[in-house]
Structures are given as structure tokens and as C-alpha cells.
Amino acid sequence: MEILMVVVVGVMFTIATYMVLTKSLLRVILGTVLYSHGAHLLILTMGGLGTGAAPLLSTEGPHSDPLPQALVLTAIVISFGVTAFLLVLAYRTYKQHKTDDLDQLRGSSDE
Amino acid sequence: MSNLLILPIILPMLVGTILIFFAKNHSLQRVIAGITAVLLLILAFYLAHEVYYHPQQTMILELGNWSPPFGIVLVADMFATLMVILSSIVGMLCLFFAFKTIETERAKHYFYPFYFFLLTGVNGAFLTGDLFNLFVFFEVMLLSSYVLIVNGGTNYQLRESFKYVVINMIASAFFLVGLAYIYAVTGTLNMADLAEKVGVLEQQGVLNVIAIVFLFVFGAKGALFPLYFWLPNSYYGPPAAVSALFGGLLTKVGIYAIIRTFTLIFTHNTGFTHDIILALAGLTMFFGVLGAVSQFDFKRILSYHIISQVGYMVMGLGIYTQLALAGAIYYIAHHIIVKAALFLFAGATEKITGETSLYKMGGLLRSHPLLGWLFFISAMSLAGIPPLSGFFSKFALILSGIQEERYVIVVVSLLVGLLTLFSMMKIFMYAFWGEQKIPTEKVDKKETMGLLKPIIPLVILTIALGLSAEPIFQFSLGVADQIMDPSNYIDSVLNQD
Questions:
Q1: Nearest CB neighbour to A107, from listed B139, B159, B177
Q2: How many other C-beta atoms can be found within 10 angstroms of the C-beta atom of residue A111?
Q3: Does any CB of chain B come closer than 8 Å to the CB of residue A75?
Q4: Which residues of B touch A111 (CB under 8 A)?
Q5: Contacts of B61 (CB under 8 A, 6+ apart)
Q6: φ, ψ at A63 (rounded to 5°)
Q7: Of A49, A110, B10, B437, which alpha carbon lies 20 to 30 A from A58's?
């Protein structure tokens, strides 16, 4: 199961890299979202999947590791907030520059 | 155990929250913000004093009474407290400069609250002793920096902020990847515990990979070669008070994280990792200074100089002796102060002339002599002319390079010093000498003095850091001694009884 998940993470990072390198603002954002999701999945996978009982004192051991879930929850909330901010920023940029093509958002050297 | 450690984090956070409620009341915001900044500085000095006279010179706080390595700890050793002091000094003076220069429109859009949230993140990143908590504080700092960098919403800012946010988001994703790897390998995220576990790990190869992932992440935030390309454009957009805070402080948080992790955790194979760091240091300082030489804009030259000077700091880490690290720490202190001062000078001249392009300025020395000479002192300090602070820190770095027979980096750093002097002189000649090209009557003497007030303490500090080099260097050696020997850190966190 872990091997499969690692492959999935690899595919997600590949797609994310491709998306980030495209020219459209929205695709770049989707790329960063995929990067974050890939990283979250990796954290969860690294804790070991489907081993042990729920980490409660009343249950019989061995327990599974609860820490990756705590970590991934924090990370998801943060990436959610940043993505929301980035979407608003991209929308404002699009409204003011009247383009979503990053080639035209390069800026000239003499500014 | 002392609750004092949480105060530099929680005070700006609380005040930032309170300031949100008074977002429309500009003068009340200033009063609250000003008092808090002064309080924060006093607090930082008090904390440093307590830590210095502590028997182990390291204080820790177990959050929620969870003993390490299970809970999050805050660790204040001498290096961390020094950084907190520097962040408070620069934070206070940039804030005072912002009082004079920030437009009401920007202030109303939550400038001051996010300013304090930024300081929360910066202080938190310095004080935390947990790698995941470091990620969280990095994000607190970065999210506030996103808001501050786009605050005002000009076309230029919107365009460049987007790139800044995307690059930092990608770096953050890789931060998580690094955390996942190191947790899988060691089963802990507490830095002291990591340091202990990494020492006894049998598979060293995978640790090299993790070390490089972290170097990539912190390098992207600290503007190391080849990940510095975002810096000059994004630091150009926001108002001078923000550029000064970012230029002085933000990249140095990345550098702090590099020094912390590569002296505490990733010391298993210094022949590999620290040689890479040394090579990157050389390339960073060389390409950074080439950028500065080619530019003809006040703020852009200064931005490129941040890059070249980040190279000096990691050079100290790459050489990895006590003397080199002491030089790097001295250099960080010098750089934060001088760089903030120079960015504020850029802001002051921009306010006076309405320009940042050197082609359009000129003759400011005649109309504003005090501004001109103070700038000259800071510029000379940056270039490393004795008896100012830049000289002694570079001297220690170069001396340690010669002692360790790393001649290539020594030659590169000397050459970069020369080019730094050249580009600083270029600013001085074009902006302050020659004929006056722009009428500057609209800013009178009194207003100029008001702009200079927050900068003068920084200039005095750089002179003082240079003239009292002996005690400060002894202090830096003490700090370097502490971070070169991780057993002190590990013992204070894990075996405290």
C-alpha cells in the first residue's frame, strides 16, 4: 500500500511541475495545490498505513502512529489558507492587468 | 522552564489581533503599535540577559507541559536570543519609519496588524525547537509577508507578488516533503532528539538526501544561488519600510534555519553537505554582486546586495570552524542593521526626490548634507571599510578561510567586497554628487529630519558594532562555541533535571 501511495505522490508531483511551468495564472495555482496535496499524502504515507489499532489508551496495542494525522491536518489548513489568498491575488492581478498570460506579466527591464 | 520564552511570540500576536479592530483609526493604531514595538525590544533584551546568565546559557519552555521529545518545546539559546534582539530593533525602527511614510490608504488596509503577525512568525521561527513548528512559524511569517508585499495593490506589486507567493508555496511544499522523510527515517521532529538520533543512524545516505531537501527549502527562502531570482523584483514593489524589514530580516530567517539545522542535525557528513554549502556561498555572493553592479536603481542595487551578502553568511557555515561561525554571526548582526538602514535611506531619498532611478537623481549632498553623509557611513560599512562593523566580520570570515586553506572562497569574497564598494560608490556618486536634477524644495529640513530619526540609531549601531569589535567578537565566539557543540542544546532540552 505504501509503495502505491508513493507512486501516486510521484505522479502528483510530476503533474504539479508541469502545471507550474505553464503560462496561465490558474494552472500555476492548480500546480501549487497539487504540490501541497502530494506533500500531505507523503506525510500520511510516511507514518505507515493501516497498521495497528486506533491510538486510544483503552484499546489493545500495537497502536498506529497518530502524529502524521496531526501534522497533515495543520498542513492542510495552512495550504488551504494560502491557496485562498493566492486565488484572490491572481483574480486581482487578472482584473488589473487584463491578462492571465504570465508571458505578458514578465515586466520590462527598464521599470 | 520559563514562561518568558513565549512572550516575544505572543505579544505581537495579541497586539496584531487588537489592531485589526482599530484598522480605520490611524492615530490610535500608531500609538498601540509604537508602544508594543518598544516593549518587544525591552523584552528581547531581558530574555537575552536571562539566557546569558543562565548556568547552561539555554532556556527551554515545554508548551502544554508535554515533555520533549513528545511535545513542542521553545528553546532560547544565545544565537536565538541574539536574533530576537535584532528582529526587535529592526522591527521597531522600520515601524517608526512607516509612521512617517505609509499612506493612510495602506494603513487602513491592515498594514499594522500584519506587521506584527510578521514579527510573530519571525520570533517564533527563531525560538522554536521543533522542526514542524518551524514550518508553522515560517508559514505565519510568509502569509503576513504576502499581505505586506501586495499591500497598496499597484500593478507592479500585484504582478511580482504573485511570483513571490508561488515560489514560496512550492518551497513550503518541499519543506513538508523534507519533514515527511525525516519523520519516516527517525520517528521524531524535535530538533534535539533529531540531533541525537541522526548521530546513531546507520544509513547515512538517505540523510544526505534529506539534508539537501532542507537546503533547497531554506535556500529558496534565504535567496541562495540559484534560487535568488525572485528577490530583486519582489523587494522593489512595496514601500520602503516594508522593503527594509524584508531586506533586513526575512531572508535571514532562512539563513538562521540553515545554520541551525546544519550545525545541530545534519552534521553527519560535513565533507559532503558543508562543501556544497561553501560552493553555493561563493556562487551566491558572486552572482549577487554582479547583479548589483549591472543595475542603475537605488532599491534594486540594494536588493542584489542582499543576495551577495547572504553568501558571506553561509560561507561561515561552509567553512565550519568556530572562528568562521563567529564571523558569520557577527556578519548577520551587522548585515541586518546596515541593510535595514540602507533600505530606509532609499525610502528617504525616494520621498525627497520621488525617484529611485540613479539616472534621474543628483546633487542631494548639497541640499541634504546630513542624509548624504549618514548614507556614506552605512555604505562604507556595507563594503567593509574599517573601523565600521562590516570590516571586522568579513575579516574573521576571510581569516578562517585562510586558516582552513579554502583559498578559492577567500579570493571570491575579497573580489566581491571590492565590487560591493564599487556599486555603493556608484549610488553615492550618482545620487549625492553632481548637479541637482530634481527640485527638492517640497520636502523641507524639518521633514527630512523626521525621516532621518529612525535611521540614525541604525547608523550609530553600525559604528558602535565596529568600534567595540572586541567585546562583540568575544560574544560571537561564545555563540559560535555553543552552536558548534550540539550536546549543550541536546542536554538542555532532553536531560533537564
A1: B159
A2: 10
A3: yes
A4: 156
A5: B1, B2, B3, B4, B5, B6, B73, B74
A6: -90, 155
A7: A49
Residue B60's H or E segment, with its range, is strand B58-62
Q: Please indicate if any CB of chain A lies within 8 Å of the CB of B359.
A: no
Total of domains in chain B: 1
Residue A12 contacts B where some CB pair is shorter than 8 Å: no
B70: Cα within 13 Å, side-chain hemisphere:
6
What is the model's pLDDT at position B242?
92
Report if pTM > 0.90: yes
Question: Quick one: cell of B284?
Answer: 551566491
Q: What is the largest CA-CA distance in chain B?
A: 71
Beta-carbon separation of A89 and B161 below 8 A: yes
Instruction: State how far the Cα of B4 lies from the Cα of B2, in Å rounded to an integer.
Output: 5
Q: Give the Cα separation of B198 and B267 in Å (integer).
A: 9
Chain A contacts of B186, Cβ < 8 Å?
Answer: none
Please give the CATH number for the structural domain made up of A2-54+62-104: 1.10.287
pLDDT band at A13 (very low <50, low <70, confident <90, very high): very high
**Chain B nearest-CA residue for A88:** B162
Q: What is the ipTM of this complex?
A: 0.94
Name the residue among B31, B44, B12, B27 with its Cα closest to residue B113.
B12
